[in-house]
C-alpha cells in the first residue's frame, strides 16, 4: 500500500473500498 503512488488512480478507488462508510 505504501509503495502505491498517490498519483495512481487505483489508490483512489482502493481507499473507499478498503474503508467503506459506517452503516447506520
UniProtKB/TrEMBL annotation:
This is Uncharacterized protein. Residues 1-24 are annotated as: Disordered.
Amino acid at each position: 500500500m505504501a509503495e502505491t503512488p498517490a498519483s495512481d488512480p487505483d489508490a483512489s478507488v482502493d481507499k473507499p473500498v478498503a474503508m467503506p462508510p459506517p452503516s447506520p
